[in-house]
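User: Write out your own:

AI:
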Amino acid sequence: MKDEVTSAALLGIDKSVLGELVEKGIAVGGAKRGSYWLETVTRYCAHLRDMASARGGEEAAQARARLGQAQAALAEAKAAQLRSELVETDAVEKLWTSKLRAFRNRILGRGGVRLTHDQALVDCAVHCSVV
């Protein structure tokens, strides 16, 4: 019992985790535990290194951090859209297109009056700048 508590404290884990490590063959168990602390620590450190390398090391950690930042930005954008702080570009384009067409039609709608040469130039300039 004392050896279990001491081994767990040495590794910075609790007794149940130490028991799991013994079952996996990472830590030395039973009566041998007291005399094989160095072996247990060595195996546990090797186990931690293996777990760290399985995660991909520093590059994978940076990739996970970038992914987390991108997901946070996406969630922020969705929340802003739900609060109506953001609108889709298609909606803005449709609104402005309809407003400018109405404006152009109001300017060009002369009620059947025939356009003079100057009015035709103005019509062309307005049409080209609006469309």
